[in-house]
Write a structure and sequence with these properties.
The chain is α/β, with parallel strands linked by helices and 527 residues long. The protein contains 16 helices and 23 strands. This is Alkaline phosphatase family protein.
Length: 527
């Protein structure tokens, strides 16, 4: 326990709360358990080391499949997988909704993309998503805490029953911890990367009092957007970190209106994720070294996150909130591959156009088979034809495809079976997600990628997430205020939601997904 003593001397740990009145949830997107292990071992005086050494650490935590940001974050605040939440990705397809922009619904055939990304913003090129604030980007803290007003309703799918747009919060099938906390009289706040994260307010639309969502894919001062240079991503994350500090101090995210420290609040970090994905940033290599340790850009991102976490814990102590606040640190998703030599980049466009051409050739007059594709390091396809014949046709076609992609150096690299190990199609795809066949949201085909495969044209990224690989799913999960316990049992990030409610002395079964899936609070906390 010498290392723990060193940590305590360098960065005082949060004491176990006498009574938890506040939960600060932090999602460090892309962070693996192996990254946290490496960082705490090599930086024993760090804030992250203090959090792990004096908290309860779950060494085998996994995020849901698909391991994308939307299902990953929704899991943490609902306790549910896509089977109960209905959230498979940020860009999907729904056969029961009408296309965006539909204003006269009579006679319109159902079937619509559901795009809950930056594409919804009034102005996706502005960090305030089109609010029209002066002095951007640094003036972004004046952004509204109700970003629903920044969503363009004409970009939303339409409910055929009401002929009205379906906002993200209306698309979520189950309630969230924010709704339960608000119903109990607690204030809530959250900071995330797109206005579409108003989904986290839950079906009521009122779960989050103060939602700060600067647009990460907007134009940054020094690059095409905030994700294309890691120093820009750190600057972007810094705005959200400042919002959290303001909330710790009892203000709203802007720091201008006194509101009281929220009962449930927090943010997501993007800096680690972009550092893992970028081949180069600032002239330095992104991602990992051949031995699996973080390279210079990723180290810088980890240092940045550590400083912010240290700032939060210091401010909690300064405000005498350390004995009433529990910090939970995890990640929406990991990133794959960690090993640079495993990378195989495959352009999925020729695979999908080939599938469509083959289908049309075999079925003259038929439309393209693929209605929507979402391919990062997994393949999710929605079809215009849901017959067993179509499902088997697509499965066999993809598994027969071979070609040449490129590796981490850009050199040609052959692939087989379209880069997939397994393909679930039709009823097998529904069974994979444990939903009934015919569900209007479930993909018609789920392709499990070979280790290291990333579906991308060109050489713009060296890692991705969204799949079922260990690199995608093995994320850290630490709850502050323990005694350095390291729990080896397998847990899921869905268990964060009922844990938050239990810490606040609220009923975990107030969450619909907890009741539906039987999601248990995290073990070993003894609170």
């Amino acid at each position: 326990m010498a290392a723990a003593g060193t940590v305590a001397a360098a960065v005082p740990a949060l004491a176990a709360p006498v009574r938890t009145e506040h939960v600060l949830l932090l999602s460090v997107d892309g962070l693996h358990q192996s990254d946290l292990d490496w960082y705490t071992r090599t930086h024993p005086g760090s804030a992250l080391a203090a959090l792990a050494a004096h908290g309860t650490e779950y060494a085998h935590a996994n995020t849901p499949v698909p391991s994308d940001s939307f299902p990953g974050m929704v899991a943490q605040v609902t306790g549910g997988n896509p089977a109960s939440t209905g959230i498979y990705y940020d860009a999907t397809y729904n056969r029961a909704l009408l296309p965006a922009g539909t204003t006269s619904c009579a006679g319109v055939k159902p079937g619509s993309t559901v795009d809950y990304t930056e594409d919804l913003d009034r102005n996706m090129n502005a960090i305030d998503a089109g609010q029209g604030l002066p002095n951007l980007p640094d003036g972004v803290l004046a952004m509204t805490g109700n970003p629903r007003s920044l969503i363009n309703p004409a970009a939303l799918p339409v409910d055929p029953k009401t002929c009205k747009p379906v906002y993200p919060h209306q698309y979520l099938r189950v309630n969230t911890v924010f709704e339960v906390a608000r119903q109990a009289g607690l204030r809530t706040a959250w900071s995330d990367k797109h206005p579409a994260y108003e989904m986290l307010s839950g079906p009521s639309g009122s779960g989050i009092d103060d939602l700060f969502t600067p647009e990460i894919n907007s134009k940054a001062p020094s690059s095409s957007d905030w994700t294309k240079d890691n120093s820009a991503t750190q600057r972007y994350d810094g705005y959200k970190a400042k919002a959290v500090l303001n909330e710790i101090d009892g203000f709203d995210h802007s720091g201008q209106t006194r509101a009281g420290t929220p009962g449930v609040f927090g943010m997501n970090f993007q800096s680690v994720s972009t550092a893992q994905k970028l081949p180069l940033s600032g002239g330095q290599p992104g991602g990992y070294r051949p031995d699996g340790t973080p390279g210079p850009v990723l180290q810088s991102a980890l240092d940045f996150v550590d400083r912010q976490v240290g700032g939060f814990t210091a401010e909690l102590r300064n405000r005498h909130l350390d004995r009433s606040t529990t910090v939970i640190l995890s990640a929406k998703h990991g990133q794959s591959p960690i090993d640079p030599s495993a990378l195989t980049r495959i352009d999925d466009a020729p695979l999908l156009s080939g599938l469509n051409a083959a289908w049309r050739a075999a079925h003259p007059g038929a439309p393209d088979l693929v209605a929507q594709s979402t391919d990062d390091d997994a393949m999710l396809l929605w079809f215009t034809d849901r017959s067993p014949e179509a499902a088997e046709f697509a499965r066999q076609y993809l598994l027969a495809q071979s070609g040449t992609g490129n590796g981490s150096t850009g050199a040609p690299k052959p692939f087989t079976h379209a880069g997939l190990t397994t393909v679930y199609a039709g009823t097998d795809a529904a069974r994979y997600f444990q939903v009934r066949p015919g569900d209007p949201r479930v993909p018609d085909l789920v392709g499990i990628a070979q280790h290291g495969v990333v579906y991308t044209g060109g050489h713009s990224k060296i890692a991705e997430h969204g799949g079922a690989a260990a690199d995608d799913r093995a994320v850290p999960l630490v709850v502050s205020g323990g005694h350095g316990a390291r729990i080896p049992a397998a847990v899921e990030t869905t268990q964060i939601a009922p844990t938050i409610l239990r810490l606040l002395n609220l009923d975990p079964r107030a969450l619909q997904a907890v009741r539906e899936e039987g999601t248990a609070p995290l073990p070993g906390l003894g609170r």
